[in-house]
Specification:
Elements (H helix, E strand, L loop, with lengths): L33 E7 L2 H17 L4 E5 L1 H11 L7 E4 H4 L6 H10 L8 E5 L8 H17 L6 E8 L5 H10 L2 E3 L4 E3 L5 H9 L11 E5 L6 H12 L4 H20 L5 E7 L3 E8 L19 H9 L2 E7 L2 E9 L1
Parallel strand pairs: 1-5, 1-6, 2-3, 2-4, 4-5
Antiparallel strand pairs: 6-7, 8-9, 9-10, 10-12, 11-12
Length: 334
């Protein structure tokens, strides 16, 4: 059974045998935040779920932003026809290259439409086939963070598509933990695995995967902080990183190390792994970070801090804080 082109999903509407079918359009505005996953197997199912969601939003005069990879943008533009002109399309391959940049992107969209709590809709695809394991891991943290990054009373309906034919079962299972509700071509159901804030804290408070190889390392404190710049720049440049990008990576690591000292750490250690396809830098200290959204909130430049800058300069940034301290891992792909 396919989704009816005019389906309007709602938690409160009765459903017969878990299948939602609506014969008429409804444009009741959503008055609170909704974060839902949509499972699809082929282009037909993708369009059957996304197109009516977009069109119903447009007909209700709700701003719509769609952040998916480029090939899916082309599919939607063709299917929507003239309606595509009224949709804000964003290439998730660019915005979500470092998943920590996605929440600021959604926040910018929400800030554009603040008048009287006007309902808005979004489609966000942070995970697609071919992403590196590290990127998938951070995209999964991003999906969990979306449940605490947006205030519950915000009239924002966000739908996140997952390609079940191409993504591993473990990725789909994690989607159940990070989304209160799951949709597919046949049904709408609450997720029995949804973890909410507890899931955020569990992921953020876990250790990052162990890296293979023997890193170069440098211990730093307030007196030796400046050494971090040359240490990272030289190692990354000799590993094949272009000089300007090596300098950017060094600045990012230096700023993260400085943030460690601002959190009252007495010092820390910088480790650098040089692989054939990446340079990976890690800053570890013994001071806790209590905010899992650190580095992901836009705001005045003087309030953004080292983690924000690192997220803008690096291909991927991973942040975890456990009982033994805080680790920030910065990736540059070669």
């Amino acid at each position: 059974m396919r989704i009816n082109p005019r389906v309007q999903h709602s938690r409160s509407e009765p459903r017969e045998e878990s299948v939602i079918i609506a014969s008429t359009k409804t444009h009741r505005p959503h008055e609170s935040y909704r974060h839902e996953a949509f499972f699809w197997r082929d282009d037909e199912e993708f369009l059957a779920g996304m197109v009516p969601f977009i069109q119903d939003g447009l007909e209700a005069d709700e701003p719509v932003m769609v952040a998916v990879i480029d090939e899916r943008i082309k599919l939607l533009e063709e299917a929507l026809g003239a309606d595509a002109d009224d949709v804000q399309f964003v290439d998730m391959g660019e915005l979500g290259r470092n998943p920590a940049r996605i929440i600021p992107g959604w926040q910018q969209f929400l800030d554009q439409h603040p008048a009287h709590g006007r309902p808005v809709r979004g489609i966000g695809e942070p995970i697609w086939a071919g992403r590196r394991p590290e990127e998938i891991l951070e995209s999964q943290l991003h999906e969990a963070l979306l449940n605490v990054a947006v205030k519950p009373g915000t009239p924002f309906w966000l739908l996140c598509p997952y390609n079940t034919a191409q993504l591993d079962e473990s990725v789909l299972e994690e989607a159940h933990r990070s989304h209160p509700a799951i949709l597919d071509a046949e049904e709408y159901r609450g997720s029995t695995l949804y973890g909410g804030r507890d899931h955020v804290e569990a992921v953020f408070g876990s250790d990052l995967p162990t890296l293979h190889g023997h890193p170069e390392q440098l211990y730093f404190n307030r007196e030796t902080l400046q050494r971090v710049l040359s240490f990272v720049a030289v190692l990354s440049h000799t590993a094949g990183v272009e000089a300007g990008k090596a300098a950017n990576l060094a600045v990012a690591v230096h700023q993260v190390a400085a943030s460690s000292l601002h959190r009252a750490a007495m010092g820390g250690v910088v480790r650098v792994w040089r692989h054939s396809d990446a340079v990976i830098c890690e800053v570890h200290d013994h001071a806790r970070v209590n905010d899992p959204l650190a580095g992901r909130r836009s705001g005045p430049a003087n309030e953004r801090g080292g983690l924000w800058l690192a997220n803008q300069l690096c291909d991927l940034v991973q942040l975890r804080s456990t009982a033994t301290g805080t680790t920030v891992r910065l990736h540059h792909w070669i």
